[in-house]
Amino acid sequence: MAEPHDAIQTLQADAESARLNALYEYHVLDTLPTPSLDELTALAAEICQTPIALISLIDAERQWFKSRVGIAATETPRSVAFCAHAIQQTEVFVVKDALADQRFAHNPLVTQDPKIRFYAGMPLMTAEGFGLGTLCVIDYKPRNLSPKQLRGLETLSRQVMAQLELERHTTNLQNTKVEIQQLKQQFIEQDFFNQQELILLNLGNQLRNSLELNTILQTAVNEIRNLLKVDRCHFLWCMSDGDQLTSTITHEAKTPTLPSLLDDFSNQYGSFLTTTISNQALLKIDNVYANTQLTAEAQAELIRLGIISELVLPLKTNSGQLGAIVCSDGHGSRTWTDREVQLLQTVTEQLAVALDQAELLSRSRATALAAQTQAEYLVKALQKLQQTQAQLIQHEKMSSLGQLVAGVAHEINNPVNFISGNITYVASYVRDLMELLKLYQECYPTPESRIQAKADAIDLQFLTEDLPKLLASMEMGSDRIRQIVLSLRNFSRLDEADVKPVNIHEGIGNTLLILQSRIKATSKGRPIRIDREYGELPVVECYAGQINQVFMNILSNAIDAVDDCSDPIITIQTDVIHCPDFDASNEEQVACTPQVAIRIRDNGSGISDNVKQKLFDPFFTTKPVGKGTGLGLSISYQIVVEKHGGSLSCSSVLEQGTEFLLQIPIQLPTMPSRI
């Protein structure tokens, strides 16, 4: 928290800053003497009978004398000024004898020249209460003022303040008049400049938004006429006609009451303009009657057309085309300013660029069309290449996986056959031994002590009961391994031809067998119920290994979809789609091949429409990084549609589940490509 002394100093500093701002608003410091103020200063000296009288203004570091009587100095330091004390008062500040006053006894203005002994100063106060300075009187000897003199000093100080206020208002008024005049001139200049910028902006927009030449030229003549306030503005083309040049007005903007020069373009006027354009020389005619450079024929033609003043700016394109912008007026003499000429020169440059761009446009359109066609072809080729590359990678991975599965199945099959084949003999041997043991027990009901001890040690009764069960369990496990091995071999289909009639239900069953570990328990520990709603299907001619790959991809996604369900269910439904009876009289009917339909439906959370649109795109996946490549469904789509001439679609309802519908012809059609 600030100390009271610091707070007082802060308030004083703020007050002094406000006082100085008030003083500076009068713009009176360091100005020339003012006769009216000098008269008031002299009157103060006369009334108070003192040799010195001053109008003193207190600045930040000094006191400056606006008016003075009886002293040559123009200012003194504020630190020694009597007036610095007086401005802190509200009435006359009087020092009768400076040597007897402790505040001023050692002041250099007292001890040295001018050796002040007496001082009386009336503060010059603004209406807001700020002390700007004083009207003061000074003497070299001690004395005092009478009441009449004090009242006179107060009255004169108010007159001084009124005069300062008057001068301030006069100065402000003069400054305001100057500022208004300057602003008016700036406004006029800025308005013309803005109009110039506007026409250039409009033309620039035309160049950017349209390369239609007629639109650009008509906009140019309209905007120029509006800007320069002329009767006519037109654009000419100067073209070669054999060995001669001829000019033709193509675009015009004019006052509605004037006749159009498009219909009245005489040879004399055309010849006059053609000469100017071919020379590429600027032509300014302020007054046709006073221009000595015109021929008599040209002068007469301009007068006939009602043209008194005219400005012609030729242009030339990069391809050599000649033209010109012509502005004309018929109201009297007109001096074409450098700014107007500069504006029109800028416009002609813009038009020349427009002409060049229009010509380049016609040349580039064919090239752009060819380039666009080539780019589209390259984009499609790149997409096809990326898809083919992804398919080859996936196909190679599946082929390698199939070979690995077939090899492992073959290697497992041999020892399993050995075990399975010997279990039968082991079971027979065990039965014989058990029967022999039973005969021994019947013939020798009381065995020796050592035999009885061993029987008790091995729990003979339990062994004879459990051993047949153990052998039956081993036989069951062996059969299970054989089934798994057979499913792996059937899934890989490496021992069969590429295209072969296949039992679709067997392929689905083999796939489910491979996925059995995931079906038995989800990540939440819940088993997945598989509902099979199989119809009567014939054998289907297809690439069995690839169709199994499709089943694997779709069923794996279904298992992922129901991973969080409280009662996970996957339904597999199959049936045959027969074609309607073919009617030869119905031209709109298209013959079709019977197909099998496989619907794989889950009761998961479903798929949104946005995701469903991208479902079969290569590399698109909603699974976390490392959980999926985004190729499974894309490859499945290629296998079903391009490889087998079928269809693969998906329908889904959020929070209800998803269904994939796979349709393939029963008889494989001839396809143009192979994956």
TrEMBL record:
Q: Can you tell which superkingdom this protein's organism belongs to?
A: Bacteria
PANTHER family, per the entry: GAF DOMAIN-CONTAINING PROTEIN, SLR1143 PROTEIN
Spell out the SMART domains in the cross-references: GAF, HATPase_c, HisKA
Protein's recorded name? histidine kinase
- Enzyme Commission number(s) from the entry: 2.7.13.3
Asked whether the UniProt record includes Metal-binding among its keywords, one would answer no
Q: Top EC class per UniProt?
A: transferase
Protein keywords: Kinase, Phosphoprotein, Transferase, Two-component regulatory system
Q: Which InterPro entries match?
A: GAF, GAF-like_dom_sf, HATPase_C_sf, HATPase_dom, His_kinase_dom, HisK_dim/P_dom, HisK_dim/P_sf, Sig_transdc_His_kin-like_C
Kinase keyword on record: yes
Q: Please tell me the species this chain comes from.
A: Stenomitos frigidus AS-A4
Catalyses: ATP + protein L-histidine = ADP + protein N-phospho-L-histidine
The UniProt record lists the Histidine kinase domain at 407-668
